[in-house]
Amino acid sequence: MTDTDQKDVSLTANRPAASTNVAESIGLNAREVVDDTINAVLTYCADGLDAFDECVATSLGLKDEGLQGLLQGSSAVYDRLVERVEQVQGFERLALETCLHVPAGLIINQEPVADPANQADEATELALDAELQHMRQRIAAARSVGRQHKDELRALDEELATCGDVSALAAVAGSAAAGKENLEDDAAAIAAAALRLQPLLARAQQLRTLADGCGLHARTNKDATVLAEKEMVRRKAAMGGVVVEDLWRAQERMQL
Description:
By secondary structure, this protein is mainly α. The chain contains ten helices and no strands.
């Protein structure tokens, strides 16, 4: 045994045992303090990676595959960070033995003042503690799922941006409704654009519903999707109520 090991053993042996009624005396629950610290670290990591994604994507002008690769990489980094943070037995043990340790002789044991109106049995307290722990786990899981949805919404926003200027499509729809000579070309362009936007808008609606359930704030993506949906409705009205199936048939005829 080295001198350092002997010193550690001596410190541990000489430390007074913790008081059995610390929580009742000062309201300190050391393990809850450790859990809250871990949750704060996970939140800090998630916010930091979100800022990193936005900075890199903006600085390099990433789109499509480049942006998707960046988001996948940052998600992998976040997963590794979660794994490392969850393996904090050393931190927890050190905190419980040092800064969160209350010696037995520090607090004078006193009989708790009984208040019949506020008394709760042990079973109720255990049930509340279990419910609180379950809620913490659900929050951590929701944070991970929410980050994935946020990344997918960002990628979808980039994809919607590649569909072009909606004002140009509106001009094409107007000329098609007016019955000009290039009606077939205009109808083909509108059909292709509509069929390209159809799955994107459907996925955007699904993600927005999930995001609302997770409490995400994807205002930019949501506004872009709503504007695109309104433009699709307006163009559909200009074409006389053409449905998606009609657009498929029109595009097939244009390709013959």
